[in-house]
Structures are given as C-alpha cells and as structure tokens.
Design goal:
Distance between the termini: 15 Å
Number of helices: 11
Radius of gyration: 20 Å
C-alpha cells in the first residue's frame, strides 16, 4: 500500500470519512398523510436522500463517493421489533399492522443483496432510462398501471443518481481533481471507457444502495465484469498492473 492509500486508510479508520445524517423527520407519517404507496414512499426517500447529499472529496482521493454514513432515525419512529435503519417509510402503527399480518424476515431494510451491477455498468444510466421510458409507454398502452408506476419510480431514481453525479463532478473540478471530474463527464451516464471509470461507476452504484441502509451488498463476480475494461486498458498501454492494483485497493478501502 503506497503513501497515498495509507493516508486515505488512516482517514477512514479515524472517522474522517463523509458522515452525514439528515433531519430525523417522521417521513412515515408524512407519507401516510399523502396516501403514498410503499413503492412511492421508497422512491421519495431515496430521491430525498440523494438531494440531501453534500459531495465530499478528500485530498489525494481518486475514486470519489467515499462514504460510511449512519442514516438511522430515532427509535421512537419505529416499534422495537423492527429496525428500519433509514428514515422510516412507515409509521409505528403501520409497522405493527404489517407485522400482525405478515412475517418479516428482514429488520426493515433489505440486506444481503446481490445486484446485477454489470447490467447498468455496461449500459449507462442514459441508455437505461431510454429503455425504462419505452417499457413505461408499452405498459401504459396495455393498461398495466402497476408496472408503469414502477417504471416511473425507476426514472426518478435514475435522475437522482445523475443529479448527484453532476454535483460530484462540480465538486471535483472545484477541488482540483481533474481525473475524477473527467470521469464523471462520462459515468454514470454512459458505458465506462476505462478501468478507472468502471470502478468509479461501481462506487456510485454501491453508494446508491448504501444510501438507504442496504448493507452487505455483494459485488459477486466483479472479476468477470471488470475484466474487459482491465484487459483493454492493459493492452492499449494506458494502465499498468501496478496502477490497477492501486485502484482496486482504493475501491475496497471504504
């Protein structure tokens, strides 16, 4: 581990990473008053949390979007047998009704996920949004309002991801980090053009899941879907094996 990574590692261990906690508003009561469905509530929460983020870039950091934040809300916002770690989607009363009628394997937030990161990685958010819009129109034409509503939520989440990426790009430019700023001109909007951009894209996707306390998210066969980017950069001479190892080490530091 070189000096740059050692400094970054020590900053993380010392609690110097980006820690942000939103106001502990009782979002569950607000959502209930608005008559929002569970899907609409989950969408609104992740959009709000993205909007509340303040981009932070550390000195010497290459792969931005470092985080280890506690988004837990007050225990009074949920019953004792449900630990919904993010700002709650449901009121205490709603949770009791849910648990009276259903068995909940999870604590309130989804965990132990294994997403298909490669699907979005190889397309980019712009192409993904185009596909979602096409599917939304098809579902609407068939009168399938439930799937159409899901597509609407997906579009809102994609937009929230893109908006935060723009703000991180601006922060990178302001902090004198041209490498990150240049990469964020392309990702997450498009397919990565390099191994560095692919790792940064994955950092963004992992950040998105962590934002709502989705813990223990596995990258699964990261070696397989990152290899084409690694191979291309190695063969073209823009990346050495030493630099690749440094980037991978930084990726797993947070």
């Amino acid at each position: 581990m070189n000096e740059r990574l050692e400094k970054l590692r020590l900053a993380i261990l010392s609690g110097g990473q980006h820690l942000r906690k939103p106001d502990e508003d009782d979002w569950g009561r607000e959502f209930r008053a608005q008559g929002l469905t569970p899907l609409q509530r989950a969408t609104e929460r992740i959009v709000r949390l993205h909007a509340a983020e303040e981009p932070v870039i550390f000195p010497g950091e290459r792969l931005v979007y470092t985080r280890a934040a506690d988004y837990g809300c007050s225990s009074a916002a949920r019953p004792p047998d449900v630990r919904e770690h993010s700002c709650p989607l449901f009121t205490t009363e709603e949770w009791r009704d849910i648990l009276d009628a259903h068995f909940s394997h999870f604590d309130g937030d989804a965990n132990g996920l294994c997403p298909r990161f490669d699907c979005l990685l190889d397309a980019g958010t712009a192409a993904a949004a185009d596909e979602v819009r096409w599917k939304r129109a098809a579902f609407s034409e068939l009168g399938e309002e439930g799937p159409a509503a899901l597509m609407d939520s997906m579009l809102r989440v994609i937009s929230a991801i893109e908006d935060l990426a723009v703000r991180y790009r601006e922060a990178a430019q302001a902090s004198g980090n041209p490498e990150a700023a240049s990469a964020l001109m392309n990702v997450p909007f498009n397919r990565p053009s390099s191994f560095f951009e692919a790792l940064l894209f994955l950092r963004i996707l992992d950040f998105t899941l962590c934002l709502c306390s989705n813990r223990r998210v596995s990258p699964e066969r990261i070696d397989q879907y990152l290899y084409p980017y690694f191979e291309n950069d190695i063969n073209s001479g823009v990346l050495s094996e030493e630099d690749a190892l440094e980037l991978v080490t930084e990726f797993f530091l947070p």
